[in-house]
Write a structure and sequence with these properties.
This protein has 222 residues and is of the alpha+beta class. It is built from five helices and nine strands; from the N terminus they run E-E-H-H-E-H-E-E-H-E-H-E-E-E. It has a three-stranded antiparallel sheet, with no helix packed on it. Strands 1-2 form a two-stranded antiparallel sheet. It is globular.
Amino acid sequence: MVDIEGERVLAAPCIRTPTEGMKVSSQAARESTARKLVMEMLVADQPDRDAAHDKSSHLWDMADTQGVAESRFPRLTESRVPLLDDCHVAMSVSLDACIQCNLCVRACREVQVNDVIGMAGRDHDAYPEFDQDDPMGASTCVACGECVQTCPTGALMPATVTEGTGPGDSQDFDSEVESICPFCGVGCQVSLKVKDGRVKYVDGINGPRQRGPALRKRPLWL
């Protein structure tokens, strides 16, 4: 959230087009307080960090940046949290960590054009679903992993990291090895995360065959 001179309310810079002569402030007390409040609301329904599905997720990185370790707001009642789904051989679904950001829907629909994931429900009860509310493992998901790559909270994770739907840490590996995905003839570059001499999971990386930060990711079926 930033302040634009002459405007009454704060603006979200990610969707605001800059104009000639615009004066923007991002670090004053008003903007910092607003960002911290938004972060508190996002953290409110998250599993405790020690039990998080990804302790190194982008969400927790942003919480650290804003100095937010806990929230003063009440948690969502347990009966309203979707059941965990670990039936997919390559990915785990833990919607108790979902913040309804819609990134997985866009990744599946607009980037990979698979259109398996959609948002169901309304308001605070809105969550991603697969096909017609099928378990992920029984859906038409092709295991491309694009949704896992874009999820900022650990709600969608490689099954090898969470070992089902338990706690995990995407940064818990010993080394990285760059390679080429052999799935098709495109030749997308990938990064193999190695732990204890075994490949733990795979990330896509920038390369001449794919655009952006790892738009294609092929989790290994270990």
